[in-house]
Amino acid sequence: MKLFTNEQLETISQTIGDIEKTTDAELMTVVATQADDYYFVPTLWAAIIALFIPALLNFTPFWLELNDILMCQLAGFIVFTLLFRIPAIKYRLVPKSVKHRRASLVARAISCQRHSPYKAAFRRNDLCL
């Protein structure tokens, strides 16, 4: 499966060539389907929503005891965590700045591993800055 057409590859190559002519930098293109699994994002959003469940239950006409409210809060947290782990939903919840930062860190790590004389010393998540 090709990710890019020949036109797109030529455009990318031309753009990189133009940038490298005006700077001393050597650019390397990294293409990945995803830079991270972002497991913390569904949990974080579910926790934030679960914090508001007791306040919302306070406006209902039901007479709930503290144990019932806490169980509803826990159930809501679990349901939202599982719901937000669906990839189509999860990746919409991740802020763009987090996506860009993580992609940048992964690209930097790959570059360091590729150009380092100590390749065996690097693990997947080690970064050299």
Task: Please describe the structure with a list of short key phrases separated by commas or semicolons.
elongated, disordered C terminus, mainly alpha, 129 residues
So what's the overall shape? elongated
Give the ordered list of helices and strands.
Answer: HHHHH
Q: How many runs of DSSP E, i.e. beta strands? A: 0
What is the structural class?
A: mainly alpha
The quaternary structure here is single chain
**Major sheet description:** none
DSSP strand content: under 5%
State the end-to-end CA separation. Answer: 33 Å
Uncertain runs = 120-129
Overall mean pLDDT: 83
| Helix-residue proportion | 55-70%
What integer value in Å does the Rg equal?
23 Å
Q: So how many helices?
A: 5
Structure description:
The chain has 129 residues and is mainly α. Helix 2 (40-58) packs antiparallel against helix 3. The protein is built from five helices and no strands.
Please outline what is shown here:
The protein has helices at 6-22, 40-58, 66-84, 87-93, 96-115.
